[in-house]
Amino acid sequence: MRKLLSKTAGATFNEERPNLTLCVRKDCIEFIYKGNPGVYIIVNMIGVSDDEILIFANWGTYFNRIQNPQVQLPRLEKCCPKLFAAFLNESSDGIRHIRLGNKKNGEMEGFAISLPGSPDKSLLECITTEVLNAVEKLIDTNLKFYHELYKNPPFPAWKDDLKELWN
Fold first, then answer.
1. What is the pTM of this model?
2. How far is residue 125's CA from residue 167's CA, in Å, rounded to a whole number?
3. CB of 150 within 8 A of CB of 4?
4. Is the model more confident about 159 or about 50?
5. What region does 164 belong to: left with phi over 0, alpha with psi -120 to 50, or beta?
6. What b/e readout covers 32-56, taking b as 16+ CB neighbours within 10 angstroms?
7. pLDDT at 48 > cutoff 90
8. What is the 8-class DSSP label of residue 15?
9. Measured distance CA(11)–CA(29) in Å, rounded
10. What whole-number distance in Å separates Cα of residue 80 and Cα of residue 82?
11. Residues near 136 by Cβ (< 8 Å), separated by ≥ 6?
12. Nearest-angstrom CA–CA distance, 5 and 36
């Protein structure tokens, strides 16, 4: 599963949707949004269970830098209030911070929106207007998080480490 940002699309765009395309992978579907020239934002759709799908923006291991929550979280709250709310799953728009995988097979974390799935449909068949709206909302919100961290990082190294979000 690719991380949030990439310099390559990894798929072809068509005339009907010149800024959004998708790529079917073995374990997920990638929605790829064309931002500025040479900048692509990637959001993944995965099946969590028969009746739940997850729209997920992969931040990799970026938040592993939180080693001392008593000191770091208050600074994060002050500098990046929107990110802080989502990190604590207190966001009003349904976006929550989650961890996927395990230490043995690889761990990822990021932000997600949970949507109802269907046991009798493939992941590809679950793409609806509701899913596309969730993808757009997650892309927009993650870009806001990125800009919060870039413009006002709680610690100087956090700004420099944003390069970890690139594939």
1. 0.91
2. 27
3. no
4. 159
5. alpha
6. bbbeeeeebbbbbbbbeeeeebbbb
7. no
8. T
9. 12
10. 6
11. none
12. 11
Instruction: Give 100's strand partners.
Output: 108
**H or E stretch at 42:** strand 40-49
State whether residue 152 is helix, strand or coil: coil
At residue 156, the 3 state secondary structure works out as: helix
- Torsion sign (Cα): 127, 130, 134, 140: positive
Token readout for 13 is 């765009």
Cβ distance 127 to 117 under 8 Å?
Answer: no
Phi, psi (degrees; rounded to nearest 5) at 40: -125, 135
Q: Alpha-carbon distance 12 to 22, whole Å?
A: 8
Tell me the pLDDT tens digit for each residue of 115-166. 998 888 889 999 999 999 999 999 999 999 999 999 999 999 999 999 999 9
* Beta-strand relationship, 40-49 and 96-102: unpaired
Please identify which residue in the block is written with the tokens 């911070």.
97
Query: pLDDT tens digit string along 1-47?
Result: 899 999 999 898 888 888 999 999 988 999 999 998 889 999 999 99
Q: CA angle, 111 as apex, 35 and 24 as ends, to 5°?
A: 60
